[in-house]
Amino acid sequence: MLTHPPAKIRRMFELIEPIATITFSEAVNEAFLALGMRDYWDGYFAGRAAPLGLAPAGVVHAVFYNFAEGEVARHIPWVWGKITPEEAIAVRERSSAAALRQRIGELADQPGLARAADLATRAACSAPTEGRALYAGLRELAVPEEPVARLWHAATLLREHRGDGHNAVLLAHGIGGTEAHVLLALSLGMRAEDFGRIHHLPKAALAAVVDGLRARGLVDAAGGFTEAGRETKERIEARTDELAAPAYDVLAADELDALIAGLEPIAAAL
What we know:
Layout: H1 6-20, H2 26-33, H3 40-49, H4 57-64, H5 85-104, H6 111-124, H7 133-139, H8 147-172, H9 177-187, H10 203-215, H11 227-244, H12 253-269
Helix pairs in contact: 1-8, 1-11, 1-12, 2-3, 2-5, 3-5, 5-8, 6-8, 6-12, 7-8, 8-11
């Protein structure tokens, strides 16, 4: 039984996503490039995989779930010859907090942000770690004291906790990583071939993935959703929300309402 209504759990996902994903912005990319990374993806893998330590490419590939074969190995372990995981964690936190502060302006110094950061951190540090490797790695890191950095850290924890659960649901439904991107593209009204995360894949390989989904009755002849495909996507998202919900059990109903209210202007500014 859920402690909070499903709509509020989904709303939290919508609010933490823009806060956590500031870490994938140009300012953070520039900070990693300054430390010797060759391109955006070097910095992405160094920063996001750093809580796993010096894990080999195969482990990072398994934990991240939705990258095509060989993509992780182009960056891991090469990045660890230029930067340590500890350094990657530090630069990611520092540059993400700076980018967040810059983007939200005066909101960064208002009491509401500190209150939201405190509530989000309580939730982020209370969720179960079992079966959630990336979230568990992040939980081992020190929580920043500065409010903007603490809010970003909490949002990242909550995002990766949900993401680990999402991967488990995809696996249970027999949906592979590239297949998940196809379903996401279709839910956004895009053709798989035009979706940024997979459009670079060899045409034959991507076509084979779409054909596999078509054979399962999830994609129609025109490359769009069937009714079964749409229902499967909705079921996966609903179950993902259910698995994300325990993070918020530590908060009373009025505290979750206060957190949502506190995050809304920040997410809107982003």
